[in-house]
Design brief:
By secondary structure, this protein is of the alpha/beta class. It has one domain: TIM Barrel (Alpha-Beta Barrel), CATH 3.20.20. Strands 7-8-9-6-5-4-3-2-1-10-11-12 form a twelve-stranded mixed β-sheet. Helix 3 packs parallel to helix 5. The chain is globular, with a radius of gyration of 19 Å.
Length: 328
């Protein structure tokens, strides 16, 4: 069924992001609307066996990489059990998770032991007070303990996601590089993206070119040749062990090589982060639908995927879910 994941623009999809919950223990300003969201009722969230069934189906159709997301995946009580089950799926080559790091001090070693191969931690400030201002929670020490636990558990390189917001945390770009340059990390600087009610404005966007220029004034960046579908422009830091990457969704779109699909916590397949169209797989499963029926819905979603997301000036008007409800 591999051909079912090739869209009308010739893009073959091998990467699935599965949100296991829309709940989170932080309230990051760029991710969650200031007024919050209506949490999905528990009975509408995919159950463990439903996640496993869909993951197996997607892998049988050609998916080779799965990333668990949220909300915050570690607030779901059975996430480690989900990891253990998915890691056993034959044909899955890369198994990753994105987390805010708060639960890693307790769970990093178990996640690695159960088969998780790659880990990404979101961290937008190295200053405790600023971290609290961005996330609305005073959990900076917990995140830093989680990062140390993840490195000790063997997640290397550990990816660190940094959403750069002009006049909010852009003065820490070089601080992050200095902090991570001698760690086994990949510092991923992400352009600020617009989502409903996250106060995005063109003035808050610091373009990739400027972020890179600031770093290049102090460090030599050497390009890494990677997979054509990779979202990050990756570089090594000459003389140091860290890598630095740039996620350029706003100024240098990578839509033409996009190989990603998303499964929301309530069971909807979403073919593009910025495209509001969704197809519900949960209801079909619960009504007794077969794998062939589910595969048909998945194939239809892939075929409906647009060639690219709209220009930035249009994105701010798109009716879409909040980032936290999509899963990133």
């Amino acid at each position: 069924m591999m051909g079912a994941l090739t869209d009308r623009f010739g893009r073959h999809h091998t990467y699935l992001r599965i949100s296991v919950t829309d709940r989170c223990n932080l309230r990051c300003t760029y991710c969650m609307p200031e007024h919050g969201i209506d949490w999905t009722p528990p009975q509408q969230i995919l159950q463990t066996d439903e996640i496993i069934r869909l993951a197996r189906l997607f892998v049988s159709m050609g998916i080779r990489k799965i990333r668990l997301t949220g909300g915050e995946p570690l607030v779901r009580r059975d996430t480690v059990d989900i990891v253990a089950a998915l890691a056993k799926i034959e044909g899955l080559e890369t198994f990753a998770m994105t987390t805010n790091g708060i639960g890693l001090a307790e769970e990093a070693a178990r996640l690695h032991e159960k088969g998780l191969t790659t880990l990404t931690v979101s961290l937008d400030s190295l200053r405790r007070e600023r971290f609290q201002a961005i996330t609305k929670r005073d959990r900076f020490p917990d995140v830093m303990k989680g990062i140390e636990a993840a490195l000790a558990a063997g997640f290397a390189p550990l990816k660190i996601n940094i959403v750069v917001m002009k006049d909010v945390n852009d003065d820490e770009i070089l601080d992050f590089v200095a902090w991570g340059r001698n760690k086994l990390v990949d510092l991923r600087f992400i352009e600020y993206m617009p989502f409903p009610d996250n106060h995005w404005s063109p003035g808050g966007l610091l373009p990739y070119a400027e972020i890179r220029a600031r770093i290049s004034e102090h460090y030599q960046l050497l390009p890494v040749v990677g997979d054509a579908s990779a979202v990050g422009k990756e570089f090594t830091l000459a003389g140091h062990i860290a890598h630095v990457s740039f996620i350029t969704s706003m100024t240098e779109s990578f839509c033409g090589t996009c190989n990603r699909l998303r499964l929301t916590a309530d069971g909807n397949i979403k073919s593009c982060l910025f495209h509001p169209a969704e197809k519900n797989l949960r209801d079909v499963m619960r009504a007794g639908g077969s794998n062939d029926e589910l595969a048909g819905l998945i194939a239809a979603a892939v075929q409906a995927k647009p060639a690219a997301h709209p220009p930035v000036e249009e994105l701010i008007h798109v009716e879409n879910r909040a980032m936290i409800a999509i899963g990133g």
